[in-house]
Amino acid sequence: MKRAFSSEFDFISTLKKKIWSNKDKNLIAGIGDDCAVLDFGSAEYLLVTTDTFNEEIHFKQRYLSPYEAGFKAMSGAMSDIAAMGGVCRYALVSLSVPLKLLNGFLVDFYRGMQGPLKKTGALLIGGDTTRSKQYFSASITILGLTQKRRIVLRSGAQPGDKVFLTGLTGYSHAGLLLLKKGTPFQGSGLKRALKKHKSPEFRHDMVKKILQMDPTAMIDISDGLSSELNHLAHSSQVSIIIDYTALDHDPVLRKIAQALHVPVLTLIMNSGEEYELLFTSSKNNEKAGFLEIGATCKGKPGVWIRKDKTLFPVKSGGYDHFAVTGQKT
Asked: Which residues of this UniProt protein bind Mg(2+) 5 (predicted)?
């Protein structure tokens, strides 16, 4: 049978065109951004996002402990609020649980979720629990707030903006590959790679500093840098040119890539669940400490990487839930 959609993002685009409407006066942004943005007349926008975390898709029990799974699930959901320049306030968690996990797994999963919640002061206020036949699944809804003048969408990048990252990507997928292959690397980056995959920190700590740079567009790295760059480019209708030398400068990640027999650029561009923030700004980065990786310009929406004075197109190569194969587990 022919598939109706070529990718997860083809489905979202179709949904947005055919079904979604923003005629509601309170709805500022909906399908296609990291969060829905609602205006109820106060000085702040309400941000709402939902994230699903499925066993055997987002995690395997042989790789992650229940605590690590809970930590990772909550970090991923809360990262969407940070990507809009917001602050997390409340969380609702709905679980589908097989009978075999009605034991310490649930307690430790909730303990793991408390880690990101405590770091932001957000509160768990409710949810739902149902039984599943085979696999565990969590659906997490986060409510957040942002000042109206500080809201950051994916669609605001302008030609001439610089492109920044809060940190280098690549270690999360490296950690997963190390787990799958029995850690064929014993160097100094091993702990960092495993931690980045098992217990990634979302970058709420960088939001205030980013807002000081008046960002024009922002997104978090959940599916892969290549995918998120393309989302920004198409949402903002700009071309993005990435400098290869700005990305491939970590000798430890390069050694891990060699041990895994994977091109280091593949790790950097396609590693998902990093939860670093990718943003554009016209301001300089002299004291902020962000990683400047490229710039936007007028032209066909898309992404190119410059290496040795040659431009190579960058396709969305990160995780896609509608693809036949995936990278998350």
From this structure: 223
Residue 319 annotated as part of some ligand binding site? yes
Give dist(CA 301, CA 153) in Å, integer.
Answer: 17
Of 12, 7, 115, the C-alpha closest to 67 is: 115
171 marked as binding residue = no
User: Residue 59: which CATH number?
Assistant: 3.30.1330.10
Strand partners, 96: 130, 137
Q: Is 34 annotated as a binding residue?
A: yes
**Residue 127 annotated in ligand binding:** yes
Is residue 35 domain-shared with residue 136, that is, in the same domain? yes
Predicted confidence at residue 1, as pLDDT, reads 44
- For residue 86, what are the domain limits? 12-150
Whether 108 has a binding-site annotation, put simply, is no
C-alpha span between 158 and 238 (Å, rounded) = 7
What's the pLDDT at 324?
45
CATH of the domain at 217: 3.90.650.10
Q: Confirm or deny that 120 is annotated as ligand binding.
A: no
Residue 273 marked as a ligand binder: yes
50 marked among binding-site residues = yes
63 labelled ligand-binding: no
Tell whether 156 is in a known binding site: no
Mean pLDDT by 10 residues, the chain (329 residues): 57 61 76 86 94 91 95 97 97 94 88 96 95 93 96 96 97 94 79 94 95 97 95 96 93 93 95 96 85 97 94 80 51
